[in-house]
Amino acid sequence: MEQARLIVKALADAGHQAYIVGGAVRDLLLGKSSQDIDIATSASADEIRQAAAAHGWGTVEVGAAFGVIIVVVGETTYDVATFRAETYGEDSHRPEQVQLGVSLTEDLQRRDFTMNAMALDIDGNIIDLFGGRDDIAAKLIRTVGNPYERFAEDALRMFRAARFAACFGFRLDPAAQAAFSPNLARVAGLSVERVRNELQATLIAPWASVGLKIMMVTGLLAAECRNTEQRVARSVPILPELGRLPGLPQNARYHKYDVWTHTLATVDNVPAAAALRWAALLHDVAKGWPGVRTVNKYGQPSDPGHERVGAEVAEQILLRLKVSSAVTGQVAWLIRRHLILPVPEEKKVLGWLRRLARDFRNIREFRQQVDQLLELHRADRLAGHTMPDIETLDRVKELVAAICRQVPFYPGQLSISGKEIAARLGTGPQVGKFQLNLLERIQTGELANTRDSLLAALTARLKRQPVSNQD
């Protein structure tokens, strides 16, 4: 913030109006640090560059048409923008016309929500023309002016409203919520990348379920956006698969809530990592599907195989939303295995870990996914299960930690290297085969993972079969 104030002062000293604006002012009132600090000024792009150059700051031009210049102070960048007004047209997100050189009032008036439409001057005074400070105190998300017009201008603002609710735990102004429905058709013009970014930011926020509820009840999740490749646009469903979950019953013997309520609680219960939150959101997505939903002999709903079908559905969803392949793979893996947990006995847990280890290349990836799987198990159990049995889960978790400290699962964990083995067995596939043999024997307790023990095993191997060098 102090460096931003230096930019404001430099512009003011050069005879221009300048203010810190937007989210940074909101975060200041909330007592939060701000990652991005924006500055609005009466100065033109050329005048911004001149003021920066006079202080030895670098500049980068990123949006001349919008009057936006990035000013670089040290290693930190700041968006400095000329006061502007905007007129929207057919595009669902970008303005059709931009008018530069307007007043501060007009610049603030074009913004989305009152809490984002305040300015901070060089003396620390807050300019609040639309009641943003009061709305923050009331924990209310309210648009600047007519909500129908704000959402018609930029349909992404509806997703941003849900995201802000998830970030701050605020409620949405009823008038704003009522304006979603008549503007849902505008979502079709939004890029899938922008929608995905808002969804993921909502998912990893502290009050994720609050934002997800808004997206569900307003119809955002059932809407479609677009994907454009090689100048050809096609419609992309956002998350209509979740639409069947509200009110979908579960077996009352094991579950207190319907599937959607349980899903939201699971999301809130897991740590705020993208893969975990996506897995929590989609772990029961296949419940209620034709071919999955059945009725058991007691007349209760049941969904055998929903973890397998759900993993496939989740992968399809994340691929169309262009979620990274790494996250997509992690999510599908977690969902496919979210029902299976071994009994808390060392032999059973070791066998379970040996099977899981085949899916990964190294111990780091393996431990990360196993730890996330246990987190998903915990969140799932605490999200309305009648018999969560967290004690058993904790015992399994303790055994996992103890086994992973003592037992190797990958060749790189062995106390002798592949190079040492190759020096005596010769290079070729026999090295990898011997490493796998060592791992199996250590895991079954036949060998200790010590240098002496493994070298003795190597010597015994050489006595049974001579060296075969395939260089």
Automatic annotation (TrEMBL):
Gene Ontology biological process terms from the UniProt entry: tRNA processing
What Enzyme Commission number(s) does the record list for this chain? Answer: 2.7.7.72
Annotated tRNA nucleotidyltransferase/poly(A) polymerase RNA and SrmB- binding domain residues: 169-222
Superkingdom, natural source: Bacteria
Q: Name one GO molecular function term.
A: nucleotide binding
Q: Domain Poly A polymerase head: where? A: 18-142
Which coenzymes or cofactors are required? Mg(2+)
UniProt keyword list: Magnesium, Metal-binding, Nucleotide-binding, Nucleotidyltransferase, RNA-binding, Transferase, tRNA processing
- CDD domains recorded for this chain? NT_ClassII-CCAase (cd05398)
- May I ask which residue range the UniProt record assigns to the signal sequence? none
**Is Transferase found in the keyword set?**
yes
Which of the seven top EC classes does this enzyme belong to? transferase
List the InterPro entries hit by this protein, alphabetically. Answer: Bact_CCA-adding_enz_type3_sf (IPR050264), HD_domain (IPR006674), NT_sf (IPR043519), PolA_pol_head_dom (IPR002646), PolyA_RNA-bd (IPR032828)
Q: Which residues form the HD domain?
A: 273-345
Any keyword Mitochondrion?
A: no
| PANTHER family from the UniProt entry | CCA TRNA NUCLEOTIDYLTRANSFERASE 1, MITOCHONDRIAL
Of which family is this protein a member? Belongs to the tRNA nucleotidyltransferase/poly(A) polymerase family.
User: Protein name, please?
Assistant: CCA-adding enzyme
Q: Which organism is it from?
A: Methylomusa anaerophila
State the taxonomy lineage: Bacteria, Bacillati, Bacillota, Negativicutes, Selenomonadales
Q: Which gene encodes it?
A: cca
